[in-house]
Amino acid sequence: MSMHVCITIDTEYSIAGAFADAALQPIADPVVWCDVDGRSEGLGFLLQCFAQHRIEATFFVEALHRAYFRHDPMRPIVGRIAEAGHEVQLHVHPCWSVFEHADWRERVRRQPRQDDFAGRAEDDSLRLIEQGLDSFRAWGLPRPAAFRSGSLQHDDQLYRALARSGIPYSSNIGLSVYDSGDPDYRLYSGAHVRHGVLECPLLTFSDWRLGARRHLKTLTIAGTSLAETCSLLDMAERAGIPLVVILTHPFEYVQSRDLGRAPARRHRLNQQRLTSLCAYLDRNRDRFTPSGLARAAPSGLKQPPDNLLLQGTLGQSIRRMAAQVAYDKYGQLALAAHRFGLVSEYRL
Fold first, then answer.
1. Per-residue pLDDT tens for 182-237?
2. Does residue 345 belong to any structural domain of this protein?
3. CATH number of domain containing 22
4. Which residue, among 206, 122, 204, has the nearest Cα to 159 in the 3D structure?
5. Helix ranges restricted to H, the chain
6. Which domain holds residue 101?
């Protein structure tokens, strides 16, 4: 049986500094579509890439932003994603719920950590999840079967709340992004039941090790080279891991000094990584099944819940870091050159 590979896209709007600066406002569509010279290099690029290589993906769509964006700009976006044949699942950033209150600026000053799920009461987490489910009903979408928390924050209370909500699957854990410190949630791979909810963590691996020191990295398109990703998929398949979960966002396919408020250029390096990965999966369908997370999750129940930590290589890590640093510097120079009128094209 081939291993499921789940490319998951956290699709969300941005607070964009509004909590810290009264002159700023949250940003909606520009951080999802990411238009450059009239072409969508974010969501549009993703949908085109997946269609070209026949990849089913999972879009975890943030659903509490409607407390601020009352005109509901996400509605046509989720319609477009669903029409393209992808899973649309629930993503929740608690910070958006503060806009339910007229005195939200004062509340943020008193309690700046508005986006935390960790440490939140179970009943309050359940309330936020149910608000997200209300958004899906308003959008006319099927009830989500999978959940992802904002910033991958999690604790035991969140899983209790998810169980009460009736959502059977989650993908809240990526240990290099957020580690709760609870050994029961130190999950690197596979699928694991917590309070009746099947958690499918983002694959976390060790990208290098020096003596007793081991560095952890979570598998993302923006933070992992194609060579690393393919090596990890090969290792996971040989080890019998039932599914591998990968993370990305639409805004990672452009570069900008202030996305939504300043010009952007396409991020060629990240676009090439995703395009090449999709082509690799398409060529190797005898070994890998690209699929939505809810479709893949039941495979995790068919074998013991191994929690393997895969090991990358220092050489691959060094090459990836060098490429990213060089490309980021090049991108910033290109943006600056355009700003001062030295070049007229961002898409190089």
1. 999 999 999 999 999 999 999 999 998 888 889 999 999 999 999 999 999 999 99
2. no
3. 3.20.20.370
4. 122
5. 30-33, 43-52, 74-83, 104-110, 122-139, 156-165, 226-239, 268-283, 293-296, 314-339
6. 3-339
